[in-house]
Amino acid sequence: MEMAASKPMTKIATAPAAAPRRERLGRWRVPLSIAVLCVLPWLLPSKALAVNVLIYGLYAMGYNLLFGYTGLLSFGHAALFGTGAYVTGIAIGQFGTNWFLGMLAGVIAAGLMAAAMGALSTRTRGIYFAMVTLALAQLVYYVALQASSWTGGENGLRGFTVSKVGIGPLSVDFLNPIVKYYVVLAFVALAIWTLSRILNSPFGGVVEAIRENETRAKACGYDVVRTRLLAFVLSGLFCGLAGTLSALHLAIVPLDSLGYMMSGQAVMMTMLGGVGTFFGPFIGALAFLVMEDVLSLWTAHWQLFLGAIFVALVLYMPKGIWGTGLVWFERWRGR
Amino acid sequence: MTQTTKQGLSRRSLIKGTASVAALGVLGAPRIARADEGPIKIGFPVPITGPFGAEAKDQVKSAELAVKQFNAAGGLNGRLAELLVRDDKLNPGEAATRTLELIEKDKAHFIVGALSSAVQLSVNEVTRARGVIYISISQSDTINEAKDFSRFTFHEALNPQMTAGAVARHAFKKGQKVAYLAADYAYGHEMLAAFKRTAAPIGVETVGEVLHPFGAPDYSAFMPRLMSMKADILCICNFGRDQANSIKQAVDFGLKGPSKIVVPVLLHNQRLASSPDVFEGVVGGANYYWGIEDHNASAKTFNDAFRAAYNGAIPTDYGTYGYTAVRSLLMAVKEAGGTDTDKVITALEGLKYDVAKGPQSYRKCDHQSVQSVFVIESKKKSEMKTDADLFKVLATEAGDPATLRSCEQLGHKPS
């Protein structure tokens, strides 16, 4: 690929003085993120919630690759998450594959779905791109609703509970919440590392160049359409992985996992955490799920409080929790 | 959270904080081993927020009453029961997470709840994998079938076969023409199927069926088609707000005169939300109506206890499911002498209970609660003695396993 050979464009919007420090910190972003995730189940109210944070964090990070880094606002990522989840469930439940092959099938299917959706949508931009992705995702939703002998339709897919996870003679009890958390974390950690490598590669630079100035990127000789498509597929693989993990975690695939609310959640979590920051979407997912969990235990009017908090965050932390935190951190260090 | 970042959270205090939280978690662990001596915990996930919030809140009230009565009577040799209410937001994924939390973190011994076909099936999937008893209080035919059933699965609510069956046997007459309007999701499909299964042997002709999307506010597009079918009976199979909205529009279009409107479940809260004029003459099934207290002693006892606990309020149909399910469970716990899952299952299977509406028992093969079904009709405004005097009971079909689909039809092996 010609773009891989050329140097990435300079990063924009970073204060020049802060750049080396941030880069030094950036080198440690993967081990730091994983270290935080290792202690997460002990900090949250429940293990089931912690697994959800991992899954949705990965989902939002995958989404951020397209939205934050490539600059494409997709409203159809539920189709990728849901495809991963459904295909894993169907592979295990109806074809009797083991958990790993089921996951592999789910991720591959999500990648193919992303390739198909990307091929149809990446030529458009802005609101048209959002609309095309939304329409395609709704298409997938209705297919799943109608094909009820495969997907369980309205009732959701069930009957594929994975109670043991193992390779060869080694196996662990997947129903144990702590074991489940660390198994899921192993996959999420691998995905975080891969994502970091992608973003640090020349390809990651090209993607950001296209986001900042498409015409200039084109003038520099980059194939914009193909780069976008590749970013879409990569994003789809991460979101598909999140979907397969969610299928294994909950042992059901609700039809809602293909719904537009699910697509909206990716946007919401990413914005809440910080668009275009590496770990921001994860923080967004964490904040979203923890607030929802804690508030709904505390009061039946949790939606009111959640809404108020969101409004406050959007008003006073426009770069998201993580993004604004980073800015403050830089300011404090530069003092 | 912003304040600490601004002033700088020292690395040392962060580590200290993390370590102390982790230590707390470890210290908390030994409690788990002695869980058998603590309170009897019943997890109760219901959709407190969302379109079925009113029904869910009634279920919580009734279930809390059952727990209060159990505790007032001394519990299980002094061991008290506790109800852990959780909002499942009418979302299967959320419900599965909440159920996992209830089992793993709160160490709930039993799960009762859910108010949607998809949600109860997802809760059931979580509980049966972990060997936890679950009593569903939402209508479903699917949960009885061998594929979703497990010996940990119990179904206290009526199922579509029972309600639609009872209504059809009462309201359909040989030679009549029936048109169906059904919500296009599991509830509507199951009710429709159950009506047609019962209607066929009666000799009723189906003249058409129209499906509408779940949560549709506007039915005007469907009404002309239904009118053109010239049916004797218009059978509307939907739930919640959909029921009130669709009946109102059928009445506005003048369908109520030429056809009789029949619904599988005539909902207490929807009738309250609408007006007596709109619902007048509509016939449907119910698991409970407070008005049966005139001739049913257990209903009278239940209503009185409910009135005393909630300032004179009366229990509703769906609310009562919460009461009967939790009462039956606690009776079985008493019978079993503890929370041991196998013993409680045996006790539930052998249990005969009559706590609100007449005799009930769980059928052995699919754990469906066999119980009476009431066929009720919405009263005219002039016939209503009080604001709560909503329905007249046309018929009471006593609980009879013969009205259910047989164990073999459901795919259970004959035992």
UniProtKB/TrEMBL annotation, chain B:
InterPro entries: BCAA_transport (IPR051010), Leu-bd (IPR028081), Peripla_BP_I (IPR028082), TAT_signal (IPR006311). The lineage of its organism: Bacteria, Pseudomonadati, Pseudomonadota, Alphaproteobacteria, Hyphomicrobiales. The keyword Transport applies. This is ABC transporter substrate-binding protein. SUPFAM superfamilies: Periplasmic binding protein-like I. Coiled coil: none annotated. The keyword Transmembrane does not apply. Residues 39-381 form the Leucine-binding protein domain. One of its GO terms (biological process) is amino acid transport. Keywords: Amino-acid transport, Signal, Transport. Belongs to the leucine-binding protein family. It comes from Rhodopseudomonas palustris.
